Every structure is written in C-alpha cells, then in structure tokens.
C-alpha cells in the first residue's frame, strides 16, 4: 500500500497533476518518511499548488537530510529555498540560505553544477546595482556551467540573465534573440515547471520593458496556455493575469482587462507581484474615471512599488491638479536611469506639463523620447514619440502639428491600440482649430468620441463635450480654462493663486498662455471671450 501511494504520487507528478501529487506524496510521507528523490517531488508540488510555507519546510528538511552525505545536493535545496524566499520579497532569509549553499559548495572543493546556480543571484544583484557588464559576465559563466553539466534549468536561467543584462546595457536586438531562444527551451518542455514559470514571466516583462508589444502578446498567450494546461498550478497564474490585463488594456478590451486585474490582485495577495497587479487595476480605474477607486489601488500598489508613477501623476492631472502632478513626477524622472526606466515617464511628463501650461519642459521630454525611439526602433516607442511630439507642437501652435499627429495615429492603428489612437484624434482636432478649420476639428472629435464611449473612458468623453460646446476653448488646458473662469470674475492673479493654491508666478504664466492661445492682449478681452463662450 505504501509503495502504491509513492508510485501514484510520482505518476501524478509526471502528469502535472500537482494537487494530486502533493496529496499522495504527503500521505506516503506520513506512512513512512520519503526518500530524497520523492521528497524533492513533494517539495516542488507544494510550491506549485501554492503551499509556500510547507514547501519551505520540506526544502529545509531535504537540506538537513542530505547535508552530511551529499553536501552539493543539499546545496541545491538551499539554493532553491533561498531563491523562493527572494522572489517572495524575503531578502534576509533568502540570503541566509544562499550563504549556506555557497559554504557547502566551497567546502566541497570541486567543480559542480551548483556553482553555476549560485552565479544566478550574483548576476541579479549586479543587475540591481546597475552593473550590466558584471551581470552579463556572471550569467554567461552560469550558462556555460549548465552546458558543461548538461543542466537545462541552469542553461535557461543563465541565458535569461544574459538577456536581461543586454537589455540593461541597451543591446535590445541581441537580447530579444537570446530570450526567444530561451523560450524555445521552455515551450519544448526541456526545463522544470518552476524554471518554466520564472522564465515565462521574466521574458514577458523584458518584452514589455523594451516596448516589444507583439512579442509580449505572443509569450503572454503561450503562458496562458501553459497555465491552463495545469489547473492546479498557483504560482505564475497571478502574474499571467497581470500580463493579460496589460495586453487587453492596450487592445481596447477594458472590461476583460478589469476583471483580469481584479483576479490578479486576489491571486497575488501578499506577494511582491501584487504591486504590479494593483498598479494595473489603478490604471484601469483612472481611465474609466473612477478616481477614488484608482487612488485606493495606487495606494495599495505603493506597498511594493515605492513610486506608483506615472499613473498617480496622470490621475492628479485628470483631477485638475496638473501643477501638483508635475511636481511629483519631476524628481522621479530626474532619478530614473536608462531608457527603459525613463521612457514611460517621459511620455507622461509631456502630457502633465502641457496640462500645466509648460510647453518648454514638454518639448525637452518629447525630444528625449524621440531620440530614444530613433535609437531603439521599437514600433511602440515610435508611436509614443510621435504622439508626444505632436502634442507639443499643438501646445506651441506649430502648423506642422497635424502631419506629425497623423503619423502617430497610423502608428497606434498598426499596433491595434484604439484608446491611444483616439487620443491622437483629439490632438488632431485641436490642430484643426488652430488653423481655423472647426468642421474638420469636429470630425476628429466625433471619431474620438465614438472610441471613448465604446471603451467607457468617461474623463475623455467629458473633455470632448467641453470641446464641442465651445470649440475654440479646446486650445486651453483644463487648468488654463479654470484660470480664465476666475480671471473673468474680476480676480487678480494673487486672488486666483490663493483660490487654486498656486504661486502667483504660475498663475501669471497661465494668463500669458491664455492670451496667446485666444489671440487677445488684455484681461478685459479674455473676460469678454469667456462670457461669449459661456465659460462663466
């Protein structure tokens, strides 16, 4: 009977029936302690069904049972226990187990595959410190040891880390080719399930970091299929939901994205990856206009993401607090290093400072974004850069804005990104107003409105209602329109500043921008304009 439990547990493991394997091997272990091979299967099954604490205890037990007779094998258990703890956000305990593994390997005094595994956390540490060259060197040594010992798991982890180091160094072409190669090993079922899950999530995140939208979508679909083939699987399912929600958001499937983000938040409760889940949920609430719900989700995300940006700054902008948004985004942008960290911040910064009436700062960020897009060459980056440049040209009232925006719209269309494409149509409408073509402007606004209404983008629909009621006021940002209303009631700049909690200098800049955009030269003329267009 005991042997029957053992064999049935092994069979369930081979069939990837993780819950069955866990239950059968646990029952067998209660009858008589498992041998090291079966104990390893039970440990893996515990992790794969989400019993992390049990998995930790089993891994520690395997370490203790092997440490005297098979120290390098014990080091392998210590390594994986340390990695699981690190991935769950427990660096102290994780580092302790990795130190134990290193001590055993050093004491063994001979070459072993465990030496290669221990290079992986070293490489990740170097990446975290911003030393891409050292990270790549560690990773290449790990992959080479994996090849020498014919260890597919180590080869995959080593090459994954090499790809991440290449991305950090800016060599995205070589990085993506290597990551594709790693994914072939995963989809060919050449690696263990835990390594497969780690690689899937890491590769998808890398693709998103370098704005490879199509690759991210392809590997997200593959991860979804992989998770679906193992109904008992708990780890990676939550991360998979986050990735799917991100893809759905881009492609306009907002209700599905919202459901997926909510499930991811539930699935990842207490896990460091919950930060990304709550951030994605916050983004969807913000775009729908559920600002209180977005505020709460950003706050939850901040438990794991110290600065939930640029989403929080964009929320403040949507709430009419563009100056506050610019103030909170500025230090984050100044501290961001590398094109991956800076790009999304730059795109958001353009939007925020234009709303704050600071076209000069928007121009600086748009130019940097365009330079990065030209260097990297990713279609998503190109669309973002054209969009930002076009918005700046509208803010500067440059006659060339419409043509740049037309190219941005085509770029978003090619990426099947309806919301971003509709946002460009709004900018195209503003460009039409600047060249005194209200009929074309209304056509652009109508086209955008249909998309926004279909998506449920309430703040964008509301803005378009304002533009359609008084087309010429579309030249003003939300903050400028607010300032104009107060100026039209007879308030001085100082009074407006007190009312809106701004500095007099900021109010003076807004008033100057209003005069320029409306083609007037006095407060009286601006006031007359405000009454004429029913702004007061």
Automatic annotation (TrEMBL):
Keywords: DNA-binding
Domain HTH luxR-type: residue ranges: 469-534
UniProt-listed PROSITE patterns: HTH_LUXR_1, HTH_LUXR_2
Listed SMART domains: HTH_LUXR (SM00421)
Pfam families: GerE
Gene3D superfamilies cross-referenced by the UniProt entry: Tetratricopeptide repeat domain (1.25.40.10), Winged helix-like DNA-binding domain superfamily/Winged helix DNA-binding domain (1.10.10.10)
A GO molecular function held by the record: DNA binding
Name assigned to this protein: Regulatory LuxR family protein
């Amino acid at each position: 009977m005991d042997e029957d439990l053992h064999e049935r547990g092994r069979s369930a493991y081979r069939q990837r029936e993780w819950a069955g394997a866990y239950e059968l091997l646990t029952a067998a272990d209660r009858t008589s302690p498992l041998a090291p091979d079966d104990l390893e299967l039970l440990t893996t099954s515990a992790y794969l069904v989400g019993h992390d604490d049990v998995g930790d205890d089993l891994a520690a037990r395997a370490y203790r049972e092997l440490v005297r007779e098979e120290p390098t094998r014990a080091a392998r258990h210590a390594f994986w226990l340390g990695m699981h703890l690190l991935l769950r956000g427990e660096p102290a305990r994780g580092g302790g187990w990795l130190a134990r593994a290193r001590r055993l390997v050093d004491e063994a005094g001979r070459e072993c595959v465990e030496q290669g595994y221990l290079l992986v956390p070293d490489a990740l540490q170097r990446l975290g410190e911003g030393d891409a060259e050292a990270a790549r060197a560690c990773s290449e040594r790990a992959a080479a040891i994996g090849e020498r010992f014919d260890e597919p798991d180590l080869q995959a982890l080593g090459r994954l880390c090499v790809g991440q180091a290449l991305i950090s160094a800016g060599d995205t072409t070589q990085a993506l080719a290597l990551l594709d190669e790693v994914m072939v090993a995963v989809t060919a079922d050449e690696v263990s399930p835990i390594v497969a899950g780690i690689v899937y999530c890491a590769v998808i995140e890398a693709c998103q970091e370098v704005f490879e939208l199509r690759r991210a979508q392809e590997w997200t679909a593959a991860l979804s299929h992989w998770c679906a083939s193992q109904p008992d699987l708990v780890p990676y399912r939550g991360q998979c939901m986050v990735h799917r929600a991100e893809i759905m958001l881009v492609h306009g499937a907002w209700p599905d994205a919202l459901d997926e983000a909510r499930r991811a938040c539930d699935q990842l409760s207490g896990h460091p990856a919950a930060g990304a889940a709550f951030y994605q949920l916050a983004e969807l609430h913000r775009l729908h206009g559920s600002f209180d719900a977005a505020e709460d989700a950003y706050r939850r995300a901040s438990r794991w993401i110290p600065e939930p940006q640029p989403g929080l700054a964009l929320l403040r902008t949507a709430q009419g607090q563009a100056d506050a948004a610019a103030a909170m985004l500025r230090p984050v942008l100044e501290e961001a290093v590398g094109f991956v960290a800076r790009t999304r911040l730059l795109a958001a910064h353009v939007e925020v400072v234009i709303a704050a009436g600071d076209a000069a700062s928007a121009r600086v960020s748009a130019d940097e974004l365009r330079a990065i897009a030209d260097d990297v060459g990713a279609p998503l980056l190109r669309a973002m850069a054209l969009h930002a440049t076009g918005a700046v040209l509208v803010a500067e009232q440059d006659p060339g804005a419409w043509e740049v925006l037309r190219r941005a719209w085509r770029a978003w269309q090619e990426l099947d990104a309806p919301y971003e494409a509709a946002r460009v149509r709004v900018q195209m409408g503003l460009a039409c107003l600047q060249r005194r073509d209200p009929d074309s402007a209304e056509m652009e606004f109508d086209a955008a409105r249909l998309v926004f209404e279909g998506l449920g983008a309430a703040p964008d629909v509301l803005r378009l209602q304002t533009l359609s009621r008084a087309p010429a006021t579309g030249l003003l940002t939300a903050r400028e329109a607010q300032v104009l209303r107060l100026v039209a009631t007879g308030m001085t700049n100082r009074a407006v500043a007190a009312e809106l909690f701004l500095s007099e200098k900021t109010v003076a800049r807004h008033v100057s921008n209003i005069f320029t955009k409306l083609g007037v030269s006095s407060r009286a003329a601006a006031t007359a304009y405000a009454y004429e267009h029913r702004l007061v």
